[in-house]
Amino acid sequence: MDSDEEDDFEWSVENEEEFWEELDDIVTAPSETHEEIDDVLRRFLGFTTRFKEAYLQSEYDVARCCYQLLDAPLSKQNQDYVRRQILYCLLQEDEVDTLHLAAALLLFDGRSNETAFEMMQTEGAFPRLVELIRAKRDDDIGLHRLLLELLFEMSRIQKLSREDLTTVDDAFILYLFQLIEELSDDADDPYHYPIIRVLLVLNEQYMCLANATLSPSEENGPVTNRILKLLSMHGPSYMTFGENLILLLNRESQLGPQLLILKLLYLLFTTPSTYEYFYTNDLHVLVDVIIRNLLDLDPGNPDSGLAPDQDGQRALRHTYLRVLCPLLKNTQLAHEGNHYKRDEVRKLLFLLVNRSSAHFAAVDETIIRLVIRCKQIGWLREEDDEQDELIEKKLAEVAPSESIVAKKLLGMSIGEAAESSLSVSEVSAKVTKEKPSVPAPRRRRQGSKPVGNGDKAHVNGTSGSDTLKVPPQQSMAVGEDISRDETRSPFSDDNAET
């Protein structure tokens, strides 16, 4: 759209009522041809940016303005064309108010019709969003937040290309981490969440790409997971991110966000250089959250046996257990004197496989294998433990159903190297309409040796205080890129020995 003609229009608006009446006249003007549609869109953007400071000050006002265009016959009857013109505006314009309206229109449009986000991917919007997020924060905080939400939403529903992910460099990830640190004085600031969600979805995209088959043309090797790499190198400088991950998990009730958080936690707890990234106090909170959620999650109808996991509850229980094992084994919780809630954890593991309790449904083999894996942790073991004998008995009872259960739940083929026969998006579509596209993480490959990072400065957190302080900047022991092998496949060990 050419905006040169905007100055041809003069509006006289005396109050808010006149503003909304004029806006309605603009979006309902004749729009039979592409030229007329372009004319309406030029007038819409010219009018709204002209009076944005006066009448579009709140998020509600901006949303109302956008839906007035999106719900108009002009957009309903020419959806693809209008959407593409707005997208081109985002790709080409540099004026802050125009970008604000274009980003808001695409975000609201995409939330009701994901075709908008798919078009953004096709037209190469990802690098443009990364560029704008770097540059526009000081110009307009509201625009910056919209751009973050738009980047998250378009990355959540589809796999990004290798070329897209290579536009994200270390400086961009560190910039996002630093924004979280700057906002650390206000844990309830809603600005935290869009930044954290972008980092979470980028981590997922890195893992999806790492587990994809490399084509012959990809001569440069795998793309580095920069989230994991930079937390390995500079974790003590960005502790607020870790605190907020656990805070969000504690508050979250929806499947998709929980899986996104748990997947990153799994990587952190199975990467030696980030074993002790979190404060000990935060790990205590995380153990409490996992115990509570594993007890609260509904395993399904006991009468149906291993019924299809329609709402993702079983998959989520598996994921919590897969995170619990390295959390207890590899972090400072494994240190002498730090064995937090040992008895409660043992009771939880017993309850997860005890069918005599009416609270739990029939147990599948995955649950029992994961429980056995946790029970093998040194500080949880007891000599001549009757619970261990019962758990092994339960495992023997359900073992024949493993392949059937896996295929039913996630389309997995256990016999073929434990790789998924479904894409990540398809797996998530089976369990939630939100499409978090996050499969459940698995244990790291056997043979990897746990190595402590030697950094004790941030292990114990604060003493007797609810406020956690960020320590002075340090560098962790590992400075090299995280390799393809370090971004572990979530389907790598379903049939591994426990």
Automatic annotation (TrEMBL):
<feature type="domain" description="SPIN90/Ldb17 leucine-rich">
    <location>
        <begin position="188"/>
        <end position="344"/>
    </location>
</feature>
<feature type="compositionally biased region" description="Polar residues">
    <location>
        <begin position="460"/>
        <end position="476"/>
    </location>
</feature>
<protein>
    <recommendedName>
        <fullName>SPIN90/Ldb17 leucine-rich domain-containing protein</fullName>
    </recommendedName>
</protein>
<dbReference type="Pfam" id="PF09431">
    <property type="entry name" value="SPIN90_LRD"/>
</dbReference>
<feature type="region of interest" description="Disordered">
    <location>
        <begin position="432"/>
        <end position="498"/>
    </location>
</feature>
<dbReference type="InterPro" id="IPR030125">
    <property type="entry name" value="SPIN90/Ldb17"/>
</dbReference>
<dbReference type="InterPro" id="IPR018556">
    <property type="entry name" value="SPIN90/Ldb17_LRD"/>
</dbReference>
